[in-house]
Each structure stands twice: as C-alpha cells, then as structure tokens.
Amino acid sequence: MTALSLAFTKDLFASVMLTGIYSLLSAGFFVLMDAVDVAFTEAAVGAGISTILMLTTLTMTGRFENRKLHHPKIALSVVIVTGVMLVIGTFDMPAFGSPSAPAQTHVAPYYIQQSGQDIDIPNIVTSVLASYRGFDTFGEVVVVFTAVIGVLALLEFSRQEQDASQRPAPMFQHKILRIVSKILIPPIMLFALYVQFHGEYSPGGGFQAGVIFASSIILYAMLFGIEQTRKAVSMPVVKLLAALGVLIYGSVGIVSMLNGGTYLNYSVLAENDITGQHVGIIVIELGVGITVATAMILIFLTFAGRIGKTEEEIV
Rounded to an integer, what distance in angstroms lies between the CA atom of residue 206 and that of residue 200? Predict the structure, then answer.
C-alpha cells in the first residue's frame, strides 16, 4: 500500500512522510525478526536522517511534482519490465527461511559456531560486519565519503558569500522546543558514544552511532539556525574528520600487512589473536562512526545553507 501510494501521489511532502513511516514500520518488523541491529539502522537512517534530508531538499525544490517533465508511460513500462525481471529472478532462489538455503548450510552456521572462538564477542553481527566481511564495510564507508564529496562538489562549487547571519532559524520562535532541545542534545550525544563503543556487546556500531550523533547537531541547527551551528561546529574540521575516518579504517589494513598479516586481518595487531580482533574492530568502528557522523552533518548543513537563497544566488 505504501509503494502504491508513493507511485500515485504528486505531493512530495506526503511521499517523504510515507517513506519515513515505511522505514519505521520496517524497523519494527526487523525487531520482530530478531534482527535488532538492522532495525536500529533502519530507524536511525531510514526514518531519521533520510527523512530530514528529503524535507530539507523539498524546501528548495517545492512540494509538488512538476508534471511537465513527467513521462508516466515510459516510466511505467520501465518499472513493469524491471519488476517482471526481478520476479523471474526469484524463481531460482530458495524459499524464504528455507533451512536448505546455501546461506543456512554454509556461511551462517560457520559464523554462529566459530564467531565465539575466532573473535570472542557476543554480538555476531558485529563480528560479521567488522571482521569477516571487513572489506565490504570498508567499501560502504568509502561510498558514504564519496557521497559527501559529490554533494560538496555540486552545491559548494558556485558558493557565494552568504548573508544569512540575520536570517532567523526556522524554528527559533519555539521557545519550549529550544529549551527541551538543550536538555536532550547532551544525552543524545552520550547515547551515540554508548552505541559506538558497545557495538560488540549490544546492537549498534559505527553506522548507527554516527547517525545518532549527527542527529543531535542537526537538531541544534534546526532550532538555532545554520549560522549559529557553523560557529559551534567548524566546517573545515568536519570535512577533515570525514576523510580521517576513512583513513583510520584503511590504515588498520595497512598496519595488519606491516605486521605480517593480510589486509584487514586484525589477528596480527596484538600478540593474542583475540585481542588483535578486538583492537581492530574498535578502531575501524571508530573510523566508521567519524565518517558517518561528519558526512551526515556536512550533507545537511550544505543543503540547509542554501534554503531561502534566490535563484541568482544559487546559480
């Protein structure tokens, strides 16, 4: 029903709200499936940051879809053909939840049985994401960093001197919200640090912690204004930290090689294999958290900084 509503509505605000609701419901569904880490990510990224970024974009593009540029027949044909191909592709897949599926007979049992012996942390999801498939996670961090570079290249390339210091913040008149936010922002930051450094023992990790930490800065920007936030958060430092996070992650692999191991083989980072795994996971998770947090902050502030500018200022 959500997908059909998104397909037919021309109100982009309603579309954003529906996608946010869909993400929140998906997070609840993942909780019921005991995939709490995935639920955590879906709630923080899908229902949280993504919704805010899309609403910020709508303030510049307008609320309703431009009908002149819309070609429903062509788009519908592409969607139908793609959908049919995807459905045909599922015929060779094992049934959902089948115990005979390759993932259930080879990879999953190994992770479940060997994770405790190889890495010795209670959260198997962290073992898989940070150690067994560390290459994939490194690629995801690079993708996030690349997205930031793309946004900055597109939106800051023609940046002119902004005279927004006199412009009131969008929600500045809400005194109660400003007071409550000042009370909530420090606990949000502390919770982000908890999620960051307890990802081995409970749901969480660098991705979730980075988004939560960024949400506290974005909340501050929404209530106190972009210029006030730029005074509190140095943009050059944030840009530097975004690159530093990727560098930290990649450097762990280089250090592993210098110690005689393969790339991202954390076992050689300490005298004991288990200790080396713990050190490697903590360090790369820190790199992930720094990159994700700074990327979300940069994208939001870059988009929000252009709200209210005239077309002549934007071009």
Answer: 11
DSSP state of 271: S
SS (H, E, C) 162-201: CCCCCCCCCCCCCHHHHHHHHHHHHHHHHHHHHHHHCCCC
Strand partners, 11: 64
pLDDT digits (tens, 9 = 90+) for 2-57: 777 777 787 888 888 889 888 898 999 998 888 888 888 888 888 888 888 888 88
Amino acid at 303: F
> Cα(247)–Cα(288) distance, rounded to whole angstroms?
10
Quote the tokens at residue 226.
């972009």
> Are the beta carbons of 63 and 16 closer than 8 angstroms?
no
Q: Up-side HSE of residue 2: CA atoms within 13 Å toward CB?
A: 12
For 11, phi and psi rounded to 5 degrees? -85, 110
